[in-house]
Design brief:
It comes from Bradyrhizobium archetypum. The protein has no helices and 29 strands. The protein is an all-beta fold and 328 residues long. A five-stranded antiparallel β-sheet has the order 1-2-29-28-27, with no helix packed on it. A hairpin with a 4-residue loop joins strand 5 and strand 6.
Length: 328
Amino acid sequence: MNRRQFLRNSAAGILAAPVLLRNAAAQEGPFRVKYFPIEAGVGLHDVTPARDGAIWFTGQRSGTLGRLDPRDGTFKLINLGKGASPHGVVVGPDGAPWITEGGQNAIARVDPGDHKVTLFRLPEKEAYANLNTGVFDKSGIYWFTGQSGIYGRLDPKSGEMKVFKAPRGVGPYGITATPKGEVWYASLAGNHIAKIDLSSGQATIVEPSTPKQGARRVWSDSKSRIWVSEWNSGQASVHDPADGSWKAWKLPGSNPRAYAVYVDDKDKVWLTDFGANAIVRFDPVTEKFNAFPSDKSGANVRQLDGRPGETWGAESGNDRLVMIQTVA
C-alpha cells in the first residue's frame, strides 16, 4: 500500500486501522488518532505528559510553555520571559515541567500550580549553548544538551550547575536516562551517541554501525538499550550496552528522515518521519512498521513522548498536538 496514503481519521478521533507500508503489518490495533489545534504561531516543538492527565508543550516561536487539557481541547500558554525560545520539556521528580530555554540560555522550571517561572542560567562563558533537551537521572539530577558543543548537569535542590565540553564539539541533541541509571545523549553533527559518567561528567563516545548517520534523538527501552533516530540515514537503530551490539532498520519508503524517537511502555518504538509526513511505529519483535501520516501536509513532528496507551507528538508545521491511542 502506498506509504503516503492518509488515514481517514477525523479530529474527533474515529477508530481506524493503520496505513500499512512496505514491510509493515498490523500489530496491536486498532488505533485512534486525534488532533488538538493550538494557537497559530506558537511554534510547537516538544511535548511531555503531566501527572494529572494534561500535556505540557513548548512554543518555540512564542516563547511559551503550554498546557493542554485533552478532555476538552482547551489550553493555556505561559510566558517564559523576554526573548524566550524553549526547546525540550520533561516533568521532574517534583512534578514540575523543566525546560531547556535556549532564548534565555537557561534551564527553566515552571510551577505546575501557580505557573511561576524560575530560571537557572548557564555560566556567562557559555553565552549561547543552543540548548536542546534534558532528562533527570535516578538521583534527581537534571542533565541537558546544547548543540553548540556542550552538555551539563543541574542539581535542582542546590541550584549548582556544571557545564562540560562535548568530546567532538558541536552536535549534542537528544538525551535519555535508562532503567539501569545511565544517561546517554546523541550528537547530530557528531554522528555518534555518548554515555555520561555521572560522577565525573566525562562523556564516552560510542560509534553507531552506520557512518554519518546523523544520530538525532535517543530513548531507552525497558532493557536499557538505546534507540536512536538517525536523521541522515533514515534509520531506527538500537545499541545494547550490555554486549556492544548494534542493529538498524531503514524506515519504509524512498526518502525517510527520522527525527524523533520514543519507546512506549510495551517496548514498541515510535519515530517521526519528515520524508513521509508521518509518525511511524516499529515492533522490534516482528520487525514490522505501522505508519500514521498526518492529515495535513508539512506536519514536521519534532518530538514524541507518551504514557501507557498514548503516544503524543507536536506538529510544529501545523501547530497541533497529535495523540495516537492503542485501543484494547
